[in-house]
């Protein structure tokens, strides 16, 4: 089971009505993205 799915299922089990998950881009120096 993926980590994100487990997080969502855990929050659903706690009857959370709104969940906002955010990520940030990873540094990719080979593509000039930092």
Structural commentary:
This protein has 34 residues and is an all-alpha fold. It is 32% helix and 0% strand. The protein contains one helix and no strands. It has one helix at 3-13. The protein is elongated and about 40 Å long. The N and C termini lie far apart (30 Å).
Brief synopsis:
32% of the residues lie in helices and 0% in strands. With 34 residues, the protein is mainly α. The protein is elongated, with a radius of gyration of 15 Å.
Cα-to-Cα separation, first versus last residue: 30 Å
The gross shape turns out to be elongated
Mean pLDDT across the residues is: 89
Low-pLDDT runs of 5+ residues are none
Features:
single chain, 34 residues, mainly alpha, 1 helix, 0% strand, elongated
Spell out the blueprint of helices and strands.
Elements: H1 3-13
């Amino acid at each position: 089971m993926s980590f994100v799915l487990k997080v969502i299922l855990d929050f659903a089990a706690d009857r959370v009505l709104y969940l906002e998950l955010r990520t940030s881009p990873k540094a990719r120096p080979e593509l000039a993205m930092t």
